[in-house]
Amino acid sequence: RHVKLALPTPSAKEKARHRWVGTFIPVAGTTDHPHEVPDLEYAANPPAVDECVANLFSRIVCDVGALPPERKFVAELLSDRIEARTVPSDKARTLTVRFVLDAAVPDGNAMVKVAGGRADISAARFLGLVHGAGLLLRRIRYGADSFRIDDGTYVFAPKKGLRMAYFARHFHNWYHHASAKELTEYIDDLALSGHNAFKFQYEYPTADRAADTESDKRLFADVSAKALARVKALDCGFCGSGGNNQGAVGSPEGLGC
Question: What distances in angstroms separate CA 223 from CA 120, 176, 227, one per listed residue?
């Protein structure tokens, strides 16, 4: 799931024009479906993680005490993905990550301040905290049993206000047959990468109703409900439709764009 980019060493002029930080780490590590990652930065000939003694960590602890109970799952979004990339050990210290809602941060943006073994992620609304967690994931350099994050202030400031992902769930494709766990994890990955809205068919595709079984339709409805619940939990926008891109007739109220 890791990709090595072979890049030419930048000239002095190029270094002055670009910031060269981090390494390329795919954000969507739960599916085989690639997507664009906003605000991706990369490094030319980055040092090995074991060579970087400063700010070397082996595990994280998340402080979500300032968030309401239904929002605390953002800690799992972050910790699960770090643990999937590196095995926790006693090799280095623990990074404490604190999530704070701060109205002073511009709406839609997120700020990550790393210093003294702590990372403070702040945003005006919950979805911004999710974007900030994704930003932290992309700034970390991963090793087999440790990871490194440089001190500094990292800002998520997207250029586009609407960053919607569309799932075509009416062609018997992966989006149609994915389990609730698979689809919700993919939604999490996209939200971490900076997406803030989703569109997909909520009702069963009308063209397939005659050929498919009632079990197929019940499973599709269960996945639809859980996917929509996850979109709402993430504080993302949603634009729903019926099967074959028709109107959401018979779907829960308020599914329109």
Answer: 34, 9, 6
Contact criterion met (CB below 8 Å) for 38 and 194: yes
Contact predicate 151/197, CB 8 Å: no
Closest CA to 128 of 147, 106, 153, 95: 106
Confidence of residue 191 (pLDDT cuts 50, 70, 90): very high
HSE at residue 135, side-chain half, CA atoms within 13 A, is: 27
The tens digit of pLDDT for each residue in 99-153 reads 999 999 999 999 999 999 999 999 999 999 999 999 999 999 999 889 999 999 9
Q: How many CB atoms lie within 10 A of CB 19?
A: 9
pTM, whole model, 2 decimals?
A: 0.76
Task: Find the helix packing angle between 126-139 and 74-85, rounded to 10°.
Answer: 10
> Nearest CA to 100 among 82, 83, 115, 113?
113
